[in-house]
Amino acid sequence: MMSPETLVQLLYLVSTALFILSLRWMSDPETARKGVFSGVAAMLLAVAGTLAGVTATGGTHYWWILGAFALGAAVGYPLAQVPLTAVPQRTALSHAFGGLAAGLVGTAKFFLYFGQHNEAALAPFIVVALVAEIMLGFLTFTGSLLAAGKLQEVTWIPQRPVTYPLQNASNLGLFALALALGAALVLHPLAPWAPWAFGAIILLSLVFGVLLIIPIGGADMPTVISILNAYAGLSAVAMGFVLNNKLLITAGALDGSSGLILSIIMCKAMNRSFFNVLFGAFGQTVTATAGGEAKAYKSDTVESAAQVMAQADLVVIVPGYGMAVAQAQHKVREVYDLLKKRGVTVKFAIHPVAGRMPGHMNVLLAEAEIPYDDLVEMDEINGDLPHADVVLVIGANDVVNPAARSDKTSPIYGMPIIDADRARTVYAIKRSKAPGFAGIDNELYFLDKTFMLFGDAKSVVGELARKLAGEGGH
Amino acid sequence: MIMLAAPTEAAVHGAGGHGQLDFMGALFVFMLATFIGFMVIQRVSRLLHTPLMSLTNAISAIAVVGALIVSAGKDSPGYITALGLIAIFCSTTNIVSGFLITDRMLKMFKKQEKVAK
């Protein structure tokens, strides 16, 4: 009979393998659901293994633990039923929960060891990991809560980036102070002031999380959510070092590297560095006020847009956050079906940062049952755009702004864009004449070939569908 | 001068950790897991980045392991247990909502012929 410890480690080993397979199966939509089942199995094994371990060392409080599980499940279930347009804020909220859990476990461990005067358990390496765990955990907690609030458009949370003088200097100062306190703790973990220093680090991390997110605008949310994702994973890794638990380290590292890769992809898609996203709110707000030059839009009727599209061979639809806000994806599906019925090829051009989180548009369009073969990445579709008869822009703005290619003074200069301006005709659905989230005028809208369709995306696309359907009858 | 000295096994066991503390080994595991993570995640289809993030949300709720160890500790004062229980609650929320919503989203991704009825 093997020892309980061996059993625990074996369960953890299988669990780790299943977590890796789970992510591996996400490489293809065909196998992705297997990935979820494998992840669930891994998690169940992890919990079973841990329970076996704590039972072998005389665990207690099982009824309380069961209650916490039940309560968590009761809150988690409705959170999984939110409309898909609310997925970005749900994701941010769950990063907050993840950060809080890591922070609380770190706090509990520190005070437990401190109360026991456990010098061996508070070895420098462990205290370093503890400090990393609580800093990452608590700053992810408040930062993600704030991000979720911004995404949910909670009224008392400012949507536009909040900036003030010496913002970056004071943020870095706070961060340095937290690090200094952490270093003092590492050197003297059992000093009488240690709990105070620990509490101060928690407080500073909570404040730092807020300060990190208030200067971030909506267009940068995909990057920020990815970074917070990485932090939540890394705090689990730190917890693994504190508890000497290899399962925590591996699963946390998988999550951390996923967040990091997504952040890198998002940053590349905006031609910005991490540093610039996190600390670069200044330039943005300045141009938002400077770009006030009035130009004339050329608008058109939905009816003639329908006629032009019905005659086209290739129509490329560029969706953006505006489509999500208006919940227009189902109407878009109607237009897609009607055009296909007429023999028009319809493709969707998906920019990596369209929407408020990585992959946001794909999920919304999949919800509307648009086959994923027609959702095409930016790099692939750009070659086809010169042959496109019509580009229909639905609530996207910066991702189709040609200024990113040509105007060196534009804040989005260098950002890879969908070459909508290379198509023969462009129709752009836009809610109002105000500039987009980044506060920049979009040159695309003033081209000769561009016609604006002003109005709510859902009603404009709906009308488009009616016109297309009506014309079929003559 | 910071000395990275390993605590004795007994000390860690007494504090509720699992197994022998070997932080060099732990660092190796971390390094390898990060490499595997990078390689696996780079192959994830861009179509699925939103479900990927909700799946990794659920995976990062592995913090439940630490929360369980803290909550079930028999010698810990009540407030420590309470912190652990709140952490279990938070992690379980993520596990349940993360896996459920990932599956909900993935069910929606259909190929051409499957959509055409």
Write a concise synopsis of the structure shown.
Chain A is α/β, with parallel strands linked by helices. Chain A has helices at residues 4-24, 32-56, 62-79, 87-115, 124-152, 167-187, 194-213, 221-243, 246-270, 274-279, 281-290, 302-311, 321-326, 329-341, 360-367, 378-381, 403-406, 457-471, and strands at 314-319, 345-350, 375-377, 390-394, 425-430, 450-454. In chain A, strands 3-2-1-4-5-6 form a six-stranded parallel beta sheet.
Topology:
The complex is a heterodimer of chains A (474) and B (117).
Chain A: H1 4-24, H2 32-56, H3 62-79, H4 87-115, H5 124-152, H6 167-187, H7 194-213, H8 221-243, H9 246-270, H10 274-279, H11 281-290, H12 302-311, E1 314-319, H13 321-326, H14 329-341, E2 345-350, H15 360-367, E3 375-377, H16 378-381, E4 390-394, H17 403-406, E5 425-430, E6 450-454, H18 457-471
Parallel strand pairs in A: 1-2, 1-4, 2-3, 4-5, 5-6
Helix pairs in contact in A: 1-2, 1-9, 4-5, 4-8, 5-6, 5-7, 5-8, 6-7, 8-9, 12-18, 14-18
Chain B: H1 9-14, H2 23-42, H3 49-60, H4 64-72, H5 78-108, H6 112-115
Helix pairs in contact in B: 3-5, 4-5
Any overview of this molecule?
The complex is a heterodimer of chains A (474) and B (117). Chain A is of the alpha/beta class and 474 residues long. Chain A has 18 helices and 6 strands. A 6-stranded parallel sheet of chain A has the order 3-2-1-4-5-6. In chain A, helix 4 (87-115) packs parallel to helix 8 (221-243) and helix 8 runs antiparallel to helix 9. Chain A starts with a helix and ends with a helix. The relative contact order of chain A is 0.09. Mean pLDDT of chain A is 89; it is low at 282-292. Residues 1-20 of chain B have low confidence and may be disordered. At the A-B interface, helix 1, helix 2, helix 3, helix 4 and helix 5 of A face helix 1, helix 2, helix 3, helix 4 and helix 5 of B.
